[in-house]
User: Which sequence fits this backbone?
């Protein structure tokens, strides 16, 4: 019985140290070294090999090494193979930091002040109390809920939207497509933390932007293909959106000639909002291996019909 | 008995509404309308008139209409006149927002990403957990303590320095000039929230910067004259400091030809970190008027020897 890691090898060596300490009985290999393929029961990968069961005929669990599973081609994976998302505190803390930073930046007009700085203009904008700023988070999974908890601490007027019904203290929760318009109509700063699925692809488009209050801000930390780029540019240029802070694009890296780079109302970061912390990620996987051994439910098990 | 407000008249009209509602028996005037000068017992001002006791012979209390009192020339004010700083929740919340935004920006390399964006470069920097980022706040008054409480919530390794000894849960507290070097040596992101006094003028200079770890970040939300501008430019250019986020300068507004405007490692905002919210400010002053009437201690009373 062995474990194979197929992702960034620098992080892989940190995983190897933790596994050697915490699970010394389980051989740990870093791709392309896989040891005896018949022994491999567990694979942690960002991009699994094609023909996965030919490479690892006795594979029992496939772990994603990062936050999403949209990089997996479900149709190329055996239907009975359990897939596990990465849900670990390192990812959550990083996302809470980024979303807090981005929402505060929009709330306090930082993109405006940067434009003013370039032209040496000293001009204060009016400050609204956080309680008068309505933040809305699309996606109420572990990341969305953690971000909302922090935003509430600043006193923002918080709401969340999700496909299914949630109840979160101090957060007005909206569910399903029928409640999306009401959610958008009350949202001054929209944060997208949705997983990439067939339903969310292209969701951030002109129709959605038109339902926000004029001048709303956008923080996009979901996945690039959720955003219709031409619609964002049009909404910014027409003033329907004020400013956008984007951490994800399509493709990544964004090509140098792309109009987002030099747009005065777009702040771009290179998909850094949140990254797996090797230390805590390895511990979460080890905990799931223990659960698997004991026949308990795996944390972060993917529902393939739902797509995440 | 009457009250005179001498500051931004737009805010003054909001104060007038609140006073009319909460203290209808007390006539409220907005400068230059002062009513009968002999009746004026209370003045809220950013810049009091010269010869204050000639203008208001029966003045009992002078309130600052903003956070600082360094704009007052103590030597021009009667020594027995009580001076009161503005300590109100609107100022505190605004400052907590700004400091959180700025510390997160430096922690997550946002100035670097903005420089990269201008040259269309997609390049992620390593992310450190907040617990490995040592934030140090200079000044442990109500603003410093509120900022530290929020920063602790993000998991930063927090310390504070003040002239006098403080004890704050979860914050390593340093006191006095003898402990300043140890405080600086453990500080990756330095936040200045000190009042402007003879001791703090020019404090942020080459000697201080040299005691920080190489590449440290600076958030300056104190007062412009605390910073030696040439020393900041040298420290940034030598890499002793990584990036600086400045909300205060000397003078303000900063002249258009000043080198700070176009410096690639300086983010400038036009003294907007925190502003009095007229609603809560007026309530705090009304509460102090009640205390004065009842012979209780005034909140925010200035110790002139200390300077704040």
Assistant:
């Amino acid at each position: 019985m062995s474990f194979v890691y197929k992702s960034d090898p620098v992080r892989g060596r940190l995983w190897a140290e933790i596994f050697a300490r915490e699970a010394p009985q389980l051989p740990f290999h870093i791709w392309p070294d896989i040891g005896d393929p018949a022994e491999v029961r567990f694979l942690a990968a960002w991009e699994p090999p094609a023909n996965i069961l030919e490479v690892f005929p006795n594979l029992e669990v496939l772990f994603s090494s990062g936050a999403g599973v949209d990089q997996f081609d479900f149709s190329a994976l055996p239907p009975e193979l359990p897939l596990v998302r990465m849900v670990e505190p390192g990812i959550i803390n990083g996302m809470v930091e980024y979303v807090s930073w981005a929402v505060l930046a929009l709330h306090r007009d930082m993109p405006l002040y940067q434009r003013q700085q370039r032209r040496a203009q000293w001009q204060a904008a009016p400050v609204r109390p956080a309680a008068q700023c309505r933040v809305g988070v699309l996606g109420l999974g572990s990341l969305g809920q953690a971000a909302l908890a922090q935003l509430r601490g600043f006193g923002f007027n918080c709401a969340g939207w999700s496909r299914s019904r949630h109840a979160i203290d101090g957060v007005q929760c909206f569910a399903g497509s029928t409640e999306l318009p009401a959610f958008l109509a009350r949202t001054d700063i929209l944060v997208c933390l949705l997983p990439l699925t067939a339903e969310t692809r292209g969701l951030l488009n002109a129709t959605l932007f038109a339902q926000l209050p004029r001048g709303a801000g956008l923080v996009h930390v979901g996945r690039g293909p959720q955003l219709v780029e031409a619609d964002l540019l049009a909404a910014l240029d027409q003033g329907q959106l004020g400013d956008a802070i984007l951490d994800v694009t399509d493709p990544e890296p964004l090509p140098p000639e792309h109009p987002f780079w030099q747009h005065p109302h777009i702040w771009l970061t290179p998909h850094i909002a949140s990254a797996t912390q090797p230390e805590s990620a390895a511990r979460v996987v080890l905990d799931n291996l223990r659960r698997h051994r004991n026949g308990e439910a795996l944390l972060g098990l993917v529902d393939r019909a739902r797509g995440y």
